[in-house]
Design goal:
alpha/beta; binds adenosine-5'-triphosphate; 3 domains; Rossmann fold; membrane; AAA+_ATPase; ABC transporter transmembrane region fold; ATP-binding; 17 helices; ABC1_TM_sf; 10 strands; transmembrane helix; disordered C terminus
Length: 608
């Protein structure tokens, strides 16, 4: 609200505050004009109002009374307009900080988060802040001021009995409001929690659209969603019902106080100690007091609600970052791009070690392949090099610099990653490729696509580079998505490259295309290939066979085959599989060429 680098916003805040007090001062004058007009019309003024002569005519008093009301309204609107930017700026700052913080949090946090619930918490939090900023600033202080002024006027003009009645009424009113509002907070929390839960379920279910369909579970999903909505419905209904009770209770208390004061004044008018104008004045003043009182009730309620709404967002802001730059972190200086793992130990969960002392080196510009059974910890190696997690012990070095001692920014700028499962942004192909280097020219984007062997495919699309790829890129095939990922890594042009090969089998033609694209990208770069298909790494400078978090074998392809160990057996298994696939392919081609294979298959019904 008081941003150090924005004097314009500070000025606005000052003016809004000034206007606010001026408007309140004008407001207190309004009932006086009402009283003077009434007395002038009834012809029973006891004292002469402190006004210039020309205003003393009843018509002029009526006009002045209404003019003041309009002026006061104008001041209020002007104040709101001035304040709007200050308040919105504060809201934006907070939303921005939350967003940045979300990106600073670790992969661990993001793997565990629930997108739907998270977005709801942030949405509610920023709204809550807006409410709090608005109400505390613009309402609390001036309302208290208005209340003090009104009480002062009553005491001065009509005596302490009036003040006592008002004081009791206000005390009751505030006490009741606080009690009921505090009770309502529980309901509000329940409402928020069920809202978050419903949204989490809805988003998770929609993200898994295909799986839901594969298993015909639409009905179950709808019921699950409806169950959480039912909880929300109950809590939301309670909120509305309880607010009805709150308003009614407040009305009863205020009405009681008002009756007492008006009876007091009516008796004095009958006794001749007050004029009709006084009676009207007392009424107008009380009506005017109703507004700030009501406001105090509302402010208290809104602020409590706002605080409830933002508590989850502040919890989120309080989540500690797992990976952060050391205070003395310096930018990584890549000279040749040599990568070294020294006795690296790591576990996602302390009780289950994943890497148990892994050491290897990738000389500058060379390619090292990491292979091994599923779950051996291959992808974990790439996550550690990218510093998604910090190692428990051991060191990871790039050109002799410990990756934990350099800035994350510079580290990640030096490494290119083609992940196992490429997920794209739901935007155009051009946007997704340019993501590798956002200032790349269209020509560079096209070149990168050509190098990644996807340029021709894109050009054949009706919308070309402007084709949108759908949610998470699902409108593209697995192979196409991977080539988009390769194209954007080409644009990034990093000195070090991690290629996490896709597990899903691509057809051999696509695989060859992708392989040649990858060979092109990795030329002259330090490359770590996490391989599932051994055929792609035959020419690697070193192959590391990982098993149960340890290096079981290492060496070049031919040497490892000669060892007849784990690598050799993996190789033989894959070769048998690919030979079987090859035989199937030949059979299919013969079929297409007219050798009618189908007639010989047993599925043909007898007699056909
Ligand atoms: N975020 C995580 N939290 C806890 N455990 C994890 C996490 N990520 C991976 N693991 C576990 O760590 C082990 C190694 O995972 P990793 O992804 O490195 O295996 P991988 O060798 O790449 O396997 P694959 O060949 O199937 O991709 C697995 O058993 C996995 O269940």
């Amino acid at each position: 609200m008081w941003p150090p680098d924005r004097p314009d916003l500070k000025m606005r805040l000052v003016w809004a505050t000034v206007l606010l007090f001026v408007a309140k001062a004008v407001l207190v004058l309004v009932p006086y004009f009402f009283k003077w007009a009434t007395d002038a019309l009834a012809g029973d003024a006891t004292t002469r109002p402190p006004l210039p002569d020309f205003l003393l005519v009843p018509v002029m008093l009526v006009i002045a009374y209404n003019a003041l009301r309009i002026i006061q309204l104008g001041f209020n609107q002007l104040r709101d307009a001035l304040f709007a930017r200050v308040g919105q700026h504060a809201v934006r700052q907070l939303a921005y900080r939350t967003f940045v913080h979300m990106h600073e949090l670790s992969l661990r946090f993001h793997l565990e988060r629930r997108t739907g619930g998270l977005s709801r918490i942030i949405e509610r939090g920023t709204k809550g802040i807006e409410t709090i900023v608005r109400y505390t600033m613009l309402a609390m202080a001036p309302t208290v001021l208005e209340f003090a002024l009104t009480a002062g006027i009553f005491a001065f003009a009509y005596g302490w009995t009036y003040v006592a009645v008002i004081a009791v009424t206000v005390w009751l009113y505030v006490w009741f409001t606080v009690k009921v509002s505090d009770w309502r907070i529980g309901i509000r929390r329940e409402m928020n929690d069920s809202d978050t839960e419903a949204n989490t379920k809805a988003i998770d279910s929609l993200l898994n659209y295909e799986t839901v369909k594969y298993f015909n579970n639409e009905k179950m999903e709808a019921e699950r969603f409806d169950r959480s909505m039912a909880r929300y419905e109950k809590a939301a209904t309670m909120t509305w019902v309880s607010i009805g009770w709150l308003n009614f209770g407040q009305g009863v208390i205020f009405g009681g106080g008002m009756t007492a004061i008006m009876v007091l004044s009516a008796r004095e008018v009958m006794a001749g100690t007050q004029t009709v104008g006084d009676f009207v004045f007392v009424n107008a003043m009380l009506m005017q007091l109703a507004q700030p009182l009501n406001f105090i009730g509302m402010i208290y309620r809104e602020i409590r609600q706002g605080l409830t709404d933002i508590e989850k967002m502040f919890d989120l802001l309080a989540v500690r970052r797992e990976v952060f730059d050391r205070p003395d972190a310096v930018p990584l200086e890549v000279t040749s791009g040599r990568v070294e793992f020294r006795d690296v130990r790591f576990a996602y969960d302390p009780e289950r070690p994943i890497l148990k002392g892994v050491s290897f080196e990738v000389p500058a510009g060379k390619t090292v392949a990491i292979v091994g059974p599923s779950g051996a910890g291959k992808s974990t190696i790439s996550r550690l090099l990218f510093r998604f997690y910090d190692v428990q012990s051991g060191n990871i070095l790039i050109d002799g610099q410990e990756i934990g001692a350099v800035t994350q920014d510079s580290l990640r700028a030096a490494i290119g990653m083609v992940p196992q499962d490429t997920v794209l942004f739901n935007d155009t192909i051009a946007y997704n490729i340019r993501y590798g280097r956002v200032d790349a020219a269209p020509e560079e984007v096209r070149q990168a696509a050509d190098l990644a062997q996807i340029g021709a495919f894109i050009q054949r699309l009706p919308d070309g580079y402007d084709t949108t790829v759908g949610e998470r890129g699902l409108k593209l095939s697995g192979g196409e998505k991977q080539r988009v990922a390769i194209a954007r890594t080409i644009l990034k042009a990093p000195p070090i490259l991690i290629l996490d090969e896709a597990t899903s089998a691509l057809d051999s033609h696509t695989e060859r295309e992708i392989q040649s694209a990858l060979d092109l990208v990795s030329k002259g770069r330090t490359t770590i290939v996490i391989a599932h298909r051994l055929s792609t790494i035959v020419s690697a400078d070193e192959i590391i066979v990982l098993k149960d978090g340890q290096i079981a074998e290492r060496g070049r392809h031919a040497a490892l085959l000669a060892e007849r160990g784990l690598y050799a057996s993996m190789w033989n298994r894959q070769r048998e599989a690919s030979e079987a696939e090859e035989r199937l392919r030949i059979a299919r081609e013969e079929d297409e060429e007219g050798v009618i294979v189908r007639r010989r298959t047993p599925e043909v019904a007898p007699g056909e």
